[in-house]
Amino acid sequence: MDILSLFIIVPIITILVLVFTKNLKQARVVSMVGSSVQLLMAINLVFAYFKERAVNSSIMVFTKDIVWFEPFNIHYTIGVDGVSVALLLLTAIVVLAGVFISWKMCDLPKEFFISLIVLSIGVYGFFISLDLFTMFVFFEIAVIPMYLLIGIWGSGPKEYSAMKLTLMLMGASAILLVGILGIYFNSDADGGALTFNILEIAQVNIPIESQKLFFPLTFIGFAVIGALFPFHTWSPDGHASAPTAVSMLHAGVLMKLGGYGVFRVAMYLLPLGAIDWSWVFIILSVIGVVYGAFSAIKQTDLKYINAYSSVSHLGLVLFALLMLNKTAWNGAILQSLSHGFMTALFFALIGMIYGRTHTRDIGKLGGLLKVIPFISVIYVIAGLASLGLPGFSGFVAEMNIFVGAFQEDNMFMRVATILSVSVIVITAVYILRVVGIMLMGPIKKEAYLKLEKVTWYERFGILLLLIPIVGIGVAPLWLSDMILESLDPFIKGLL
Amino acid sequence: MNIDYIILIPIIPFVVFLLLGVFHKRIKPAVSGYIGVFGLLASTILSFYAVYQYFFVYGKVNEIYQTFSEKSVWMNFTETLHIDMGILIDPISVMMLVVVSVVSLMVHIYSRGYMKGDEGYTKFFAFLGLFTFSMYGLVLATNLFQIYIFWELVGVSSYLLIGYYYTKTSAIAAAKKAFIVTRFADFGFLIGIMIIGYYTGTFDFETLNNPEGSAILNWAATSFMGLSVITWALILIFIGGAGKSAMFPFHIWLPDAMEGPTPVSALIHAATMVVAGVFLVARLFPMFYFVEDGFALNIVAYVGAFSALFAAIIAITQTDIKRVLAFSTMSQLGYMILALGVSGYEAHEGVGYMASMFHLFTHAMFKALLFLGAGSVIHAVHSNYLKDMGGLRKYMPVTNITFLIAALAIAGVPPFAGFWSKDEILVAAFEHNKLIYCVALFVAGLTAFYMFRLYFGIFWGKDTAYMHKPKESPLSMTFPLIILALLSIVGGFIPFSEFVTADKSGFQAHLNYPLAAIAITVGIIGVALAWVFYKKENGLSDIYAKAFGPLYKWAIDKFYFDEIYLFITKKVLFKRVSAPIAKFDKKVVDGTMEGIGNKTVVFSNKIKGMQSGKVQDYGFAFVAGVVVIALVFIYLWTN
Amino acid sequence: MDFSSFLLMRHEIILLAITLLLLVAEVSIANNKKNSIVHLAIFLFGIHTIVGFLKMDYGDLFGGMFHTNELIKFFKSVLNIGVLILLLQSGDWIEEKILHQQRGTEFFMLLFSSLLGMYFMISAGDFLMFYLGLELSTLPVAALAAYDITKRISSESGIKLILSAALASGVSLFGISILYATTGSIYFIEISEIITSNNLTILGFVLFFAGLGFKISLVPFHFWTADVYEGAPISIAAYLSVISKGAAVFILMILLFTVLKPLMAIWENIIYVIAIITMFIGNLFALRQQNMKRFLAFSSIAQAGFILLGMITGNQLGIATVVYFVLIYVFSNLAAFGVVQAISLQTGKENMKDYEGLYRTNPNLSLVMMLALFSLAGIPPVAGFFGKFFLFTAAASKGYYLLVFLAVVNVTISLYYYLLVVRAMFLRKNENAIPYFKSKIYMKLGLLITAVGILVIGLYSPLYNYIHELSKSFLN
Amino acid sequence: MIEGITIYEILTLTTIIFFIGVYGFLTRTNLISMLISVELILNASVVNFVIINKYLYPDVLQGVFFSIFIIAVAAAETALAISIIINLYRQISSVEVKDTEIMKY
Predict the structure, then answer these.
(1) Do A477 and B184 touch (CB under 8 A)?
(2) CATH class, D7-94 region
(3) Which end of chain A is more exposed for a tag (fewer CB within 10 A), N or C?
(4) Which of D63, D80, D83 is opposite residue C180, by nearest beta carbon?
(5) Cα gap C66→B362, rounded to integer Å
(6) How far is CA C8 from the centre of its chain?
(7) Is the pLDDT at A444 greater than 70, yes or no?
(8) Quick one: B497 and B576 in the same domain?
(9) How far is it, in rounded angstroms, from Cα C238 to Cα C299?
(10) H or E element at residue A418
(11) pLDDT of B639 higher than 60
(12) How far is B9 from chain A (nearest CA, A)?
């Protein structure tokens, strides 16, 4: 079994074992073991990647190709480059953290963990597949469990949010399907055979007019899950209603599929279309960046604040991807990673606070720094990371994005860039607002005086997410170089 | 010159920070205090060793102070652009090392007494460690991005320390304000950096500052709205500096920052962090000077002058002693900035530069002293307000004397440190721009006046009835006072012009006697006025206050700048921008998505009548369908 | 021709034999052990299904009236599997509800004769055989729709079906007669050589097309569907929605692709339009259905719309994808109907409301239902996704991107109402939910087969490749 | 071949019969009479087949045979329909089409 397919096999095995578990204890242990194995594999993959990369200079390494539907030339093609390796690592970490966070999932635990791991299968598969069809399959596999996860284990208007989220994402993927078919039927433009294989299609010069036609479909199809304005409205409600672990996985990993897909499919396969359309989507994404930040200022529900900040941060990702240069793209990937860790951490902490105080309304909270210091301190750190403080991953990513965007020398880009840079101020405003109201200040309720201290599994989950944030922030070189050199072949397609 | 060991200077406090931060539960307060102090002592010793090595052993090669740097890539942007981490050794950075070390060490020692019994004792020292680390990193930075990184870090440590009493709402607000205002300035800074990076292809100071370097020579290559982009970049960068150094109009955070513990105010908001702006301009001085014939530099000069005056006027009217000191800090920073602004480059031309750095040095000493003194007073009387003080000289002699020395120093009375540096600044201003000179002179007078208003108000004046008799602070607090007092006395005699100059080749600075005389007289007049007004309890001050009427009122209310900012943020941004956006998102954007769904359901309800259940209707539909299709495809859709 | 050539009609002959055997059994077996008839019927049909797969040779009979080839054989097997599953699912129902009325055997006989009609229909070589097959497949179903004589709605659905069917067949007959007038033959082979596109042919074609559109229940020939499904016994609804629709789709496709190929310029436009309105109408009506049978009825109308996407291509890819989709659709829809059957058999409840909280009481049923619905909605990794994706690919291969776009819009709409059922079963908590019950072995088997099918068919690509090869050989 | 009568007249006639049948199907209120109308429709096509065969393609008798089959099937259809109607009548003692509308929407 090759190193990559294991990323699909192991979760499946985990699920099969889970089916036979009796109660919460067994279920969580099994899924913990399973996802720990995943994490180890992911870490091992990083080293294996570096070793392989040293000797193998092809775009993708560890590639494997099995014919699946021969008549359509559909293959099960997998392979990774630096980008996917990084994102796989992110996924593995967030999933494990998610399992730890939902250590006390009482209602239908077995089903919960199964759906969680199904979701992760989708994500892993998406990141490793090089075949549009396979990619699409995994994409939908990743999306659909959200419905159950939010609908069954969620809170608040969960049915409504779940339905909205699922419909918008599936609608997007439906549009994406048209785009993919469009690409597929243009993949013989140079007289070759029709193919879904990304690397092969990249060699084909798809005629400009069909690129113009299919780029928006593909881009929007992916970008909706990346919370592109104005298609982001599923995200606040979805996050607010979802259970903690699901918000973590969703904001931390699932929303990254959007950026990754745009990068791997839309920009890579339809460069001319991208160049032709970029201005529209740049406007949209910049709006998303500023707009998300501003609406985060006025929210009072912690999860809404975080959801809107996600809109803003991921807006930066799309913005950077549209910039068509390596630095910005590097920034986009780094931003995906760092936002993944940060927002997962945020949601974990919010979940803990909510679990203790039973409210997410910052107006009702106060002085938590005194009563649950560990959680609060980590919250402050996460906040600082999210407002792009040096020493944390957010800074590294944003600087890459900004500097990269600044390489585009024309008035429109400049204005767009400066507008999006302004987000560093607005972010500071809403982050510090929350910190000031919720963590500092006098304690609002007597009840808060005797809140449960942080438990070992919570601590574990938190650290799992915090370490990479700091790691990337302090020593970004290895990561950013790993991504940078993987970007070369992709950027070449655009120039 | 081997500069590896200098790495240790910032590392040590950082290690202290980690140590105290991670184990703050397990470490006993007393221990943590010692850890902090000794850690910093080590750094201080190393800094002094560095000074010795640089200035007296290796530094000078054929009459020019060399620049040594060691750096390694931290992150790559493009083939040419990358962020380095490293250390840059040249006169000003070495000088700053000393300033930071000394003041920080003093503050550490002082805090052991001042913070005694506070539950966050360990945390406090951890934060101090973090700050000191960041400040070292800032002064040693080798390139714009490194300086920006540590710039942010000092910003955040200042945020943490201002908000140290995090249960006090005012403290939280102040911390938030400080961070966001400076952050807003950094927004400009960052864009400036990016412009520089894009048009010169480097962030590195050595490359940028080289007068024969491409960065400076082809400043005119690209221009935007009539100015060179480089000039724009420098202006933007200066905005960043202005934010940190509380220059007008970014000054509003500094007074509120006094909510923090007094040692913090002494360290961060008087001596070290706030001079980062000055340091930044000095660091990029060649660019400021050469690019577009110092266009940006003029702006710097005027901003500095105005801030100095502005702050001095407000300082006169304040009654919270820490705020008075805060405004005086702002005013003195303005002084330094304007000195840079009026400076030239070659040899004696660069006197302004030298003077600015000199003043930075001396000011760090006596302003820290003032704050620590004020701290010890507050410690004694448990109040910040002049009205609760008076006649303290009997109770706390040491504080009294040291405070007096500091006051004399800042008032520019010889032979105290302040006189020398201030005199150089006035010389520079006089040679360069008469208007600025007059302003500076006037400010000097005002400074003397409000400083002694403060002094007399605290230590003389009426004898306030204290509920429990104030007593002199413990040795751990008075010792730093004494040390700093000594430095404020002797500091002025350092032949600064030999060491720190714009073109790095020292020159002989001579006292310009007429100017010095004028300065001294102005200073004396200020002191004398203060004496008349405040030494004894008399109505004079009130009478004159009335005489000035509205102006006085405005000054007390800091010319309503806080209100303006509040209006812009609360009323405009929150109410008029973000609230509508939030509503828009719920109603319009989300509403459309909702609408699509709901409309579909509504429509499906509308058409349900088609399924009437009457088999004859079905039959009709059937036949009608057939006929319509037949007709359409026979007559219309014929292809 | 010798008798061996009758073996070309192996399916038909065996099925006829089974039917007659059952007749004999009916008269010979005593009333009190009639339930053995059920076992016998299922057993025999199982045998027949297996035999159906065995290798046989292909060709024409009766001067081309009867024609068979590998694809047709395969499709008959598909129908067999469908019917077998259907029998398994309805076995318990017969035993419990029908036998005591002494009417058990009729069910099987009518069902089988209808199936026989379909055999003839899909392997028809001329319009006469086609017409006979059509009627033979329709009339018994009408009888079965009214099978539950105790229920008024059952008779109502029966009458609705028979009347509409009569009208439809009348119309299509008139169409056939016109085609006969223009071409002078009723043999497909000859027609395909002679036929040319002129107004009269178009008229004839449209009338004829309406007749098949009725069976596939395309808008606007679909109105009978929902009412009949609701009234008829669930097995019959399932049969109508799966088997008879499947057969009709198949023969329509054959006719369009071979006999009426010259009219392609016309019929692809017709199908284009009808596909769109069918998808939209089906979905929009399905949105608000509460009764599961009506719900599935409209969903099956929408599915028919999707099938047209494959039919519009008029090439080998179209055949392959359509047959593949029908195969998947058989499993998915039968699974859904099976669950409805099981529940209504136990509790008599057929409304979506009654399903609330089902998962917590009957997890397995709910899971099968969810699989079925996901498959119908086209969500990976279950089979339905592959079926739909390939249909869309087929349509896109002809450049009908707009059509595909509208189709995916409809997929999203359909997802909404399929999720409504999932919501009822999984998300809702309900203290008076349907209590836990155990189904009989037949039902379990029937559901199990469908579930496995749904899971396997999609992922197991050789199956599709096989169909693809068949369709290749079919066209040349 | 009938003297003096061309195929057009007869086809017109059959078409008229066809639409009479359709009209009847759509308007009669009684199930039985609807059934009769259906018969009209079928008969229209029966005549069609015969005439077309006779006038246009007299050499082979495909049409004629076809019509015979149609008649047979029509009979079966009617029988079945009648039986269902009777069954309905048993339950609701009415053969009015308006009584068969309980399932709708």
Answers:
(1) no
(2) mainly alpha
(3) C
(4) D63
(5) 111
(6) 24
(7) yes
(8) no
(9) 12
(10) helix A411-421
(11) no
(12) 19
pLDDT at B559 over 80: no
Shortest distance between the Cα of B583 and any Cα of chain C, in A, equals: 27
The number of folded domains in chain C is 1
- What is the torsional sign of CA B141, B146, B148, B154? negative
CA nearest neighbour of C218 among C121, C287, C312, C143: C312
| Range in B499-503, C17-21, C135-139, D22-26 with the lowest mean pLDDT | B499-503
Q: Chain A closest CA to B179's CA: distance in Å?
A: 8
CA–CA dist A312, A295 (Å, integer): 10
Q: What is the pLDDT of residue B494?
A: 84
Q: Which residues of A touch C423 (CB under 8 A)?
A: 151, 159, 163
Give C-chain residues touching B629 at CB under 8 angstroms.
206, 210, 270, 273-274
A175 beta partners: none
pLDDT at C294: 92
Q: Which residue of A has its CA nearest to B199?
A: A407
Neighbours of chain D (3+ CB pairs under 8 A): B, C
What is the distance in angstroms between the CA of the first residue and the CA of the last residue of chain B?
90
Mean pLDDT of chain B: 87
Residues B161 and B257 in one domain: yes
Distance (Å) of CA A369 to CA A354, A374, A432, A467: 15, 8, 14, 21
Do B601 and B485 belong to one domain?
no
Q: What is the pTM of this model?
A: 0.92
CB B444 within 8 Å of CB B315: no
Q: Which residues of B touch A425 (CB under 8 A)?
A: 180, 183-184, 187
Separation CA B439–CA B430 (nearest Å):
11
Choose among A227, A239, A325, A314: nearest CA to A278: A325
Q: Does D40 touch chain B (CB under 8 A)?
A: no
**Model ipTM value:** 0.90
pLDDT tens for D80-102 read 999 999 999 988 888 888 888 88
The Cα A59–Cα B253 span in angstroms is 52
Question: Among candidates C208, C227, C223, which has minimal Cα distance to C134?
Answer: C208
- Last residue in a domain, options B556, B578, B607: B556
The rounded radius of gyration (Å) of the Cα atoms in chain A is: 21
Residue D25, chain B, CB below 8 Å: the answer is yes
> Can you give the pLDDT at residue B13?
93
Cα torsion C400, C406, C408, C413 to 10°: value is -160
What domain range includes position B479? 4-556
Rounded distance, CA A392 to CA A380, Å? 12
Q: Strand, coil or helix: what is C443?
A: helix
User: What is the domain partition of chain D in residue ranges?
Assistant: 7-94
Which positions in chain A touch B166 (Cβ < 8 Å)? 369, 439-441
Domain extent at residue C156: 3-475
Asked whether the beta carbons of residue B600 and residue C413 sit closer than 8 angstroms, the reply is: yes
- What is the reported pLDDT for A495? 64
pLDDT for A53 equals 87
Query: Domain coordinates of chain A in residue numbers?
Result: 6-494
Among B556, B579, B601, give the residue marking a domain's end: B556
Q: Which of D22, D27, D104 lies nearest to residue B612, judging by beta carbons?
A: D104
Cβ of C210 and B626 within 8 Å? yes
Beta bridge partners of B224: B227
How far is Cα A406 from Cα B190, in angstroms, rounded to an integer? 11
Provide the number of structural domains found in chain B: 2
**Tokens 């692809």 appear where?**
C268
Quote helix, strand, coil % in chain D, to nearest 5. 75, 0, 20
Cα dihedral C175, C177, C180, C185 sign: positive
CB pairs under 8 A between B and C: 80
CA distance A393 to A465: 12
